[in-house]
Amino acid sequence: MILPDGLMIQGTTSDAGKSITVAGLCRLLHRRGMSVAPFKPQNMALNSAVTAEGGEIGRAQALQAFACDLAPHTDFNPVLLKPSSDQRSQVIIHGQVVSELEAQTFGSIKALAFDRVLESYRRLQQQYDVVLIEGAGSPAEINLRARDIANMGFAEAVNCPVVLISDIDRGGVFAHLVGTHDLLSPSEQNRIKGFIINKFRGSLDLLQSGLDWLETYRNKPVFGVLPYLPHLKLDAEDAIQVDEQDHRGNIEIKVPVLSRISNHTDFDPLRWHPKVNLTFVPPGSSLGKADLIIIPGSKNVRAELTLFRQQGWDHDLQRHLRFGGKVLGICGGYQMLGRSVSDPMGVESTAGSSEGLNLLPIDTELRPNKQLKQITGTFSLGTMHGKITGYEIHCGVSTHQEPLKSFSQLNDQFGDHYPDGAVSDCQQIFGTYIHGLFEHPEFLSSLLQWVSGERVQSINWNQIRMQELDRLADCFEEHLNIDALLKLSMDQES
Predict the structure, then answer these.
(1) What is the rounded distance in angstroms from the CA atom of residue 212 to the CA atom of residue 189?
(2) What is the pLDDT of residues 75-90, one digit of tens each?
(3) Residues catalogued as catalytic
(4) Cα separations (Å) of 415 from 53, 370, 374, 375, 376?
(5) What structural domains and CATH numbers belong to the chain?
(6) pLDDT for 110-130, tens place per residue?
(7) What is the bridge-based pairing of β-strands 422-423 and 408-412?
(8) Taking the CB of residue 146, how many other CB atoms lie within 10 A of it?
């Protein structure tokens, strides 16, 4: 079956379910034997992944690629914006940093990137039977309409049909759907071919009168009502999910929520491990008692050092270490554990230098050229050794003047071999540039043993991720009118 057009999923709000819906449909169509690929014209997120060619894309598109049994590719997300402050974003096009945009010049993104977006989409159309397209935020943002490349601006340019999704769990689902529809231009309204309602709880009979009204009022079908799926263990696009963990293991792990925390999906295998109780600690709260404190990555490391001290977390960390606790820093968190972080060219913020937490004997300099690598290698942690896999995304280069025990020995996809990270002499602290560490079962088991002193059974996170994608696809098979959606995407008149 050849599907010549893309099908675009747009949402009434951020976090309405666009990313998960595209992932589930990708998995469903792939299981039906179709050649399918995900696509998001423009993403704004601090969770990202590295492609085999050394590019960077949104984490959600990497998950969607996984659902299609594809390796992540920069064409799946040609434009990625990574905010370093409320007024500034790094612009990544086809996987590489090309610019920094201030808020007042954000309108230039269309001129800067839209041709590249269309290039990627056309390449995917030539390679796959169907391209499932994810919008960004809401298409009804009046102030962004003239320079939109992520929602209707893209859909109008490529003439693709749109399905609008809304999250009923937020409340006001009919107002969201009708209000969003009515704020669009006549041609954009015509492009919306129907609706999906997400995260419904309870008996569908109680919703039926509203569905009938919506279909009559707008003369467009509801393609399905998706039930709320509890404990869905899939990568979040950006927002931290803190309300899903349904267990309290005996290994206490705390993660301070930095202002520009990045790749917090690193912690999903820990968050869902039955022996772990992982807590994201927001500003205003103490890190408190823990077996392990993990300092995550960030898009603005020097600003995070200021925040860390303002919150008193540096004192919490020292008290934690005095009582024998363990500390791990990942990427920006690793840099923070060192003696200094300098940014002479203003890569992440204003140029300058900041004192680190002085827990590892390294100094970091931020440089414009970002390191984007997929890695394999071996690690050494206390008496434990083993294999690791993961990826690197960082601008900093960390050096040391005195002998240093490395955490790992790595090989990247370009054939380079090098040491990574550092382990303290006291064996309580280590840091690394590697993201995705906990997805490797051997390392996850070793880490938890290092923390608890007990042998802990591991979990295979990639296997769990695929099981969850199949669970999602099964749900869509049952609750969505897939044949109608396929017919829609085949309609040359859309």
Answers:
(1) 19
(2) 999 999 998 777 778 8
(3) 331, 435
(4) 12, 18, 11, 10, 11
(5) 7-233+466-490 (3.40.50.300), 251-459 (3.40.50.880)
(6) 888 999 999 999 999 999 999
(7) unpaired
(8) 9
